[in-house]
Design goal:
2 copies of one chain form a homodimer.
Chain A (H helix, E strand, L loop, with lengths): L17 E14 L2 E8 L2 E7 L5 H8 L6 E10 L14 E12 L16 H6 L1 H4 L3 H23 L3 E2 L17 E3 L7 E3 L5 H9 L4 E9 L11 E10 L3 H20 L9 E3 H8 L13 E2 L1 H4 L5 H8 L3 E7 L7 H14 L5 E6 L2 E3 L8 H11 L5 E8 L1 H18 L10 E5 L4 E4 L4 E4 L14 H4 L8 E6 L2 E8 L4 H10 L4 H14 L7 E7 H9 L29 H6 L2 E3 L1
Parallel strand pairs in A: 3-5, 6-9, 11-17
Antiparallel strand pairs in A: 1-2, 1-4, 2-3, 4-5, 7-8, 9-10, 10-22, 12-13, 13-16, 14-15, 14-16, 17-20, 18-19, 20-21, 21-22
Chain lengths: 584, 584
């Protein structure tokens, strides 16, 4: 009884035809002496009907069918009476009158019902992932994900990119995140590492002359997993030769445009706006701004630099910032609510939160009485205040001021339901600092990675003021998420060595870890750069899923555990002995 | 000086246009006071010309250019004089008269020349893989490989398969090959394993209702590497629900047809022939027969079962086999050559090799005088002997007889240059034994894997004569290579448990290793089956490469070493401590 059709394709054109369907019992009901079953497969549902007159044995068997049993039926396609037509189902105008039934496999009662309304802990869902994956929503997520692979790959094929696989067993060169290690059996005491990204390989492919490379590839980071991180994640990895920042951004933007058009029928206007890192931070308080709503941060140092109000003036005199966001309309921001926001601001790291309410040409609020009329007028101008606005002011050190206002901005937008998930606001963040100071390591570390090129007009800064040097890096952000990041790379040995020096990676260490790359740079390396997209997060945004775990077939928990099969698990002493290791 | 064209696209339509090219100096020559350079990129070569009259400084700089330097040039496209036209080059009718030159990167002298005629050890090539990959042949191989990805994926997308990624950090369940292990940081003493194949995951995806799954995926086996094996290899992985053997073979054959048509313009006639395992072994001496040439093995037991010639009769009486291959024409098979073949037969495991030469209705050769006229006549008939044939006979135990003749057959075909690499002869091998006896483990092991279904009409054999049970498995072979293998899987818990029992995998062990799968089989598992193609080998055959290392961007040596970066390498004590392991 091999199916002749799937459960999603029968329609009126097939009335009176004999068909075979295979699928799962999705719903069973007994009505008017007949048994009705919705039979399910990936393609849809078909109503099948058992009549004791037609085949008494099949009817008897059907009586005992239960949800999730797997069956095969042969029957005739019949048009439904008008009152039974279900316009919501693709197959809603027909039903199949069963003549033969075969049970392909019985199912035990599932630990949760297979539908999207379940209220069951994620742990149970992950343990029975194969059942969870039957739910329409997860199935749809994975089908969209498959569609994304297809669109992405065909885009790059059309653009003459070569798809190349890079190794998973590579050299451990921890710089940034922790490596997953793989002990070698042939070389006692030596280890492979799983790639955190194919960074060095894709650069070598450019040096090898492949010109345009892409790959959709798993990467690995052994980090403590925050919400929505996975130890293994998928990257759309891209590298191009003879390009500058704009070339890479242009290809990436065109990919995004096609993806959002094909998957969501959303038009992404090109070009995508660019914000400098500084601009983003001083306007939105972070480097991945959510641009679906307003409330930009406005710096008010010029307004308050000679204020009588000491709190503000002192901050400014000590090199800090006074800045504010304006919420309009201010309705609903009770005293109590503002107190809660003040509490939030403290949680985010500020010493406090000042506020003003501007209404009918009047300022009220916690600091109104300390500020001069002139200052208030200037503030109004600077912030382009509308009537009935709430102004939240933070005066603190540079980072704190913007970061706290940025977090308040997001929190308020969330509370006001402004995070519209039908809206997609993209931006490129550019002009990142090349380095950041690591207190822990007491040295500069690369903000992006050590292969990112500094701006070539600023090379002298590497000696004089490394923290001022800007990188040729770019991130693509969408609705507060970083969805891609890349850079133009260093393509000359001398500059790469200089970079290692700035990072305090000694000659010997650089040689041991990256000697092959340094050497490769000497044999005719072209100028090159690239980008990598976080595919999991991108699919999450495209499907509106609440978590990346909902767009990954078999995800792990935040402690990197697979609840389904119990990995990681103990292994035999024999296996460890062969690998020349033992457990401490 | 960003390129306006690549080095492979300029033609007469662009004469008089100013263009910018970027690329590598591929060839440099000084001729008639001008400097000619072939500039190379992935897309082709363009001849560029430096004239001291046009730009004396550029000309001076060009004097010192060397092979593999990376440069940018701006110049005018000029038609070549008729005598200088190179019809072999796509850009052979034009050249570019350079007006501006910029050196993008200098290159040291490469350790070997960048061309396909190099005679340099593979070790050196692997150490400088990024230079090796510049050679036209390797570049072509990887571009074909990229094309293969594209064709394969679009085929499966069109056939409504869902592409799903499965985890790389999974549970260690060694059954067959050795696992690569990954120590867990969060769970001291516990380990992940890298997948030997996504077998259990793809079955779970069928149980989850995805109906048709595919993925091009890396797999890992920590084995001693024979020639042409890699510790990480790529598989086209496929699984389908509600199917039987023919459905999987049909989809696979149509994929192969499209691949060979699109890549090589070769028509693969469908359906692909099927041979049972027994037929293949008794006719070609192995389960991956090379069908590009004849010389089938013919069993002669019926001819010799009552022979006076004791050597043959004894073998038959002891349950062995007498069998032969006929080589036609026999020219060139001197006594000396036949002696060498006899030596080979011994190397392959036979006790000896008998031969006959049939010419002008007469038999000569080592055993001619021991055989009756009647036997010789019957042999002639059985083997359908043509005049001027050499008959090589082996009489030995079953396995030995066919295996030795199979190896001789291949050796002779190779010597006679019958292994035509423009010929592609496919076959399905079916009806494999389910089990094979492992002397080492003193138990039956699964010939394919423990999830392969036995033939459902032979289930009682599992109790009575497990070694006689056949599997619902199928291999696709091409020119002596296995390029794909698959099976219909067990989809019921009871049968899967029975199978573990036959394999002497105790209940407890089965539960610990595969409990999640056994459980999943109880919740409505559909009948399902699949196949996996070895992509590396397939691309090797499609490109005519001599080794799978020539179709992998960054391969490892046979001891699983990466000569380029030195992986595996030592790691820090700190890394090991975090992973709770130490080196023995």
């Amino acid at each position: 009884m091999k199916r002749t059709f799937t459960c999603g394709e029968l329609d009126e054109s097939l009335i009176n035809k004999t068909v075979v369907l295979n699928g799962w019992v999705n719903k069973w009901r007994d009505h008017g002496g007949l048994i009705f079953i919705d039979l399910r497969d990936r393609y849809g549902l078909t109503q099948i009907v058992f009549n004791p007159q037609t085949n008494p044995r099949a009817y008897e068997t059907a009586k005992h069918l239960r949800n999730e049993d797997v069956i095969a039926v042969e029957g005739i396609v019949v048009g439904r009476p008008p009152e039974a037509i279900n316009p919501k189902m693709r197959t809603g105008k027909i039903e199949v009158h069963v003549q033969k039934l075969e049970i392909l496999n019985k199912a035990k009662t599932t630990p949760f019902e297979i539908n999207d309304q379940i209220e069951v802990s994620e742990d149970i869902r992950l343990k029975y992932r194969y059942l969870d994956l039957r739910r329409p929503r997860l199935q749809q997520n994975l089908i969209v994900r498959s569609e994304v692979y297809k669109i992405v790959r065909n885009f790059f094929y059309d653009e003459k990119f070569v798809e190349i696989e890079t190794p998973f067993l590579m050299k451990s060169t921890p710089e940034g995140a922790r490596d997953f290690l793989v002990p070698s059996r042939n070389f006692p005491g030596r280890f492979y590492a799983l790639p955190q990204s194919p960074q060095t390989y894709k650069q070598l492919l450019m040096i090898a002359g492949y010109d345009r490379y892409f790959q959709i590839v798993k990467c690995f980071r052994d980090e403590d997993l925050r919400r929505d991180r996975q130890p293994e994640f998928t990257q759309i990895d891209v590298e191009m030769s003879f390009v500058d920042e704009n070339d890479v951004m242009d290809v990436s933007a065109r990919l995004i445009k096609i993806l959002f058009k094909k998957i969501l029928n959303v038009d992404v206007p090109l070009p995508i706006r660019k914000l400098s890192f500084k601009q983003a931070f001083e306007t939105y308080g972070n480097d991945k701004p959510d641009l679906r709503f307003g409330f930009p941060i406005v710096t008010l140092n010029s307004v308050f630099e000679s204020s009588e109000f000491k709190v503000f003036r002192n901050v400014i005199e000590n090199g800090g910032r006074v800045a504010a966001i304006a919420i309009h309309p201010a309705d609903g921001f009770s005293r109590k609510k503002i107190d809660r926001l003040t509490e939030d601001a403290r949680q985010f790291g500020a010493k406090g939160l000042a506020y003003l309410i501007y209404n009918n040409n009047e300022f009220k609020g916690s600091v109104a009485k300390f500020l001069s009329q002139n200052e208030l007028e200037n503030l109004k101008q600077e912030m382009d205040l509308q009537n009935n606005s709430l102004v939240l002011i933070v005066a603190d050190q540079y980072e704190t001021t913007y970061s706290v206002l940025g977090q308040l901005r997001l929190k308020i937008a969330d509370e006001l339901n402004l995070l519209d998930d039908q809206k997609f606001e993209f931006a490129w963040i550019v002009d990142f600092p090349l380095l950041e100071w690591s207190e822990e390591q007491n040295r500069y570390v690369a903000r992006h990675h050590p292969f990112t090129s500094p701006r070539t007009d600023q090379l002298e800064l590497l000696d004089t003021a490394p923290d001022k040097a800007l990188a040729r890096a770019y991130d693509l952000v969408l609705n507060g998420n970083e969805i891609a990041g890349g850079s133009i790379r260093i393509h000359q040995r001398a500059l790469q060595e200089k970079m290692f020096e700035v990072l305090k990676i000694g000659k010997e260490e650089a040689e041991a870890k990256f000697g092959f790359l340094l050497q490769a740079l000497e044999y005719g390396a072209p100028p090159h750069g690239g980008i990598a997209f976080g595919l999991d997060r991108l699919v999450m945004l495209l499907t509106g899923a609440g978590s990346i775990r909902d767009v990954i077939a078999f995800p792990k928990t935040s402690s990197a555990l697979s609840l389904m099969d119990g990995a990681p698990s103990e292994v035999s002493e024999e296996q460890l002995a062969e690998l020349h290791i033992k457990v401490r």
